[in-house]
Amino acid sequence: MSRGRRRTVKALVVLGSVFAFLSVFAIWTERQALNTDDWVQTSDRLIENSTIRTAVGDYLVDQLYANVDVEQELKEILPGDTKELAGPVSGGLRQVAGDGADQVLKTSTAQDLWQDANRTAHEQLLAVLEDDKEAVSTEEGEVTLQLGSLVTNLAEEVGIGEQLAEKLPPDAGQVTILRSDELQTAQDIAIAVKGLAIVLSLLTFLCFGLAIYFSRDGRWVTVLFCGVGLIAAGFAVIVARQVAGGIVVGQLVEDQSIEPAAEAAWSISTSLMTSIATTVIVIGVLFVLAGWLASPTGSARASRRAMAPVLRDYPAYVYAALAVLVGIYFLSAPIHNLRSFLTTLVIAGLAAFGIHELRKQSIEENPDAEIGDFLGRTRDRMVGAVKDANLGERASKLRLPEVRMPGGDGGDGGGQPAADEEESRLRRLERLAELHQKGVLTDEELAAEKARVLGSGSPGS
Fold it and tell me: Alpha-carbon dihedral of residues 286, 291, 292, 294, nearest 10 degrees?
C-alpha cells in the first residue's frame, strides 16, 4: 500500500475504535433509561441489595414519622395516665420500624409495590420524553417515583396500625425524578441518544469495513488490529465506568451515611454497561482470531490446511452452522430494538463474509487436502519426534570419550597401544553399520559418523 493508503487505514481503525467506545454508552443509555422493562429489572436488583434495602427502609421510616405525628396520635389512643408514655412508645415504635424495615422490604408484597412504583414512574418519564400531550408537560409538573404505598405497607407490617397509615398525606414517600424546568432538556437528550445508539454502532462497522477494504493484500493485519481496537474500547469503557462512578457518587451524595447505598446503586444500574462492553471485547477477540487465521504464520497455514477439506466439500453445512448459531442468539438474547437487530445482522454478515474469504484462501493454498491428512501428519510428526529423540540419544553415546584400557594411564606401556585403538574404531564402525541397516541412521548420518570415527585416529586429532 502507498503511504497515504496506510494512513487512511490506520485512521479508520482508530476512528472505528472510538465509535465503538462511544456506542457502548449510547446503547446503555438507550436500554437503561429508555426501556421500561430493562429499568424494572434493574430496580428489582436494586431492592434485592441489602445496602440499598437498608437505605430505602430508613427513608420510608423517616417519611412515616415526618408526615404523621405518631406521638400525638398515640396520646389520643392511650387511656388515662398512660398518655404520658406516648413519647417513649413513639420512640420505641420508630426503633421497631427501623429494625423491621429490611425484613418488610424482603416480602413479595413490598417488592411488588416497589416494582409497580418504578414501572409507573418510568412509563410516565417515557411519555414526557416522547412529548406525549396527555402526560406531564415540561411546564405543568414533575416526574416522580411514588413510594407512599410502601410507607403505608411498612406502617401496617410493623404494627403501627392502619389508622396512622391512613393519615399519611398523598405526597409522602414521593421522590422527584425530573422537575418541570429540566424536562425539555431531557427530551432533547433522549432524542439525541436514540439516534446515536444506532448511528454509532453502524459507523463502527463502516469504519472497520472500509479499513479492511482499503488494505488489499494486508487485510489480515487490518482485521487483527480492528479486533485489538474493539478489545481496547471495551476495556476503556470498564475503566471509565469505575472512574465515573466515583465522580457521580461524590457529586450527588451529600449525606455520607448513604454513600455505600449510592455506590451499590451505581454498580447495579451500570452493570448493563459492563455487559455491553464485554460483548464488544468478545467481538474483538473474534476479529483477532479471524486475522490470525488469514495470516501467513505457520500455525495459521496448518489450521487452514486442516479446515480446507471441510470448507471445500461441505460449504452448505458450514453456513448452516452459522445460521443455527445466529438463530440460537436471537432466541436466547431478546432483541430490544432496531439497533440490536441491525447490529446482530451486521455481525452475522461479517462472519459469513469471513468464512467465504477463509474458504477461498484455504482451497487456493491446499487444493489437494483431504480430511485424513491432518491426523496423518500429526501421527507422522509424533513418530518422527520419537525417532529423532532415539537417534539423538544413540548418536550422543557414539560420541562419548574413548574408554581407556587398563594401564593406559601411567602404565608400563606409556599410553594405549595402537592395536587397541584400531580395535575400538572397528567396533564403532560395526555399530554404525548395524544402526544404518536398521534404519536408525540415514546415509548422510552414517557418512558423517564414519568420518568422525576414522578421523579420531588421525595424527593430531
Answer: 130
Using CB atoms within 10 Å of the CB of residue 380, give its burial: 0 to 12 exposed, 13 to 18 middle, 19+ buried: exposed
CA distance from start to end of the chain: 58
CA dihedral 116, 119, 120, 124 (to 10 degrees): 170
Q: How far apart are CA 307 and CA 141, in angstroms?
A: 65
| CA–CA–CA angle 254, 255, 261 (5° rounding) | 105
Locate 147 and state its grid cell: 413510594
Give one word for 161, left, alpha or beta, with left for phi > 0 and alpha for psi -120 to 50: left
In 89-223 the beta strands, taken as DSSP E runs, fall at 143-146, 174-178
Cell numbers given for 131:
412529548
Give the closest residue to 350 by CA, choosing from 381, 378, 322. Answer: 322
Name the phi and psi angles at 157, rounded to 5: -70, -35
Helix H or strand E segment including 361: helix 338-365
Locate all alpha helices (DSSP H) within 142-182, ordered by sequence.
148-157, 162-166
Cell representation of residue 182: 429540566
What is the pLDDT at residue 71? 66
Which stretches in the chain have pLDDT values below 70?
Answer: 1, 69-87, 89-90, 93, 96, 131-142, 157-168, 170, 180-181, 333-339, 372-420, 438-440, 456-461
Distance CA 328, CA 405 (A): 79
Q: pTM for the full model?
A: 0.69
CA distance 221 to 9: 11
Quote the CA–CA distance of 449 and 113 in Å, as a whole number: 91
Strand partners, 145: 175
What is the sign of the dihedral through the CA atoms of 115, 119, 122 and 124?
A: negative
Alpha carbon distance 322, 187 (integer Å): 41
